[in-house]
């Protein structure tokens, strides 16, 4: 009977791959802390994320760009930096400068 149980375990076992990811140390620590409070590991979270992608056929949340990195904003920032560097920029008080 023991032999049969071992065979079932071997048959039911699935091969697992290792995924290597680079992530900011602070973000990793904060994520691990939150996952731990939910009783999950990073591996559990990645597995859930992967299953959601497969089940939904897409990333399971809305992705949108940060307007800070838009071409228009980056050009505006470059222009402002150039003005400050060549002395033609104007200094303004902050709107909430009362602090």
From TrEMBL:
Keywords: Toxin-antitoxin system
GO biological process: DNA-templated transcription; regulation of DNA-templated transcription
InterPro entries for the chain: Arc_rbn_hlx_hlx, RelB/DinJ
Superkingdom of the source species: Bacteria
Record bears the keyword Magnesium: no
Presence of the UniProt keyword Cell cycle in the record: no
NCBIfam families: RelB_DinJ
Entry's family note: Belongs to the RelB/DinJ antitoxin family.
Full protein name: Addiction module antitoxin, RelB/DinJ family
Species whose genome carries this gene: Lentilactobacillus kisonensis F0435
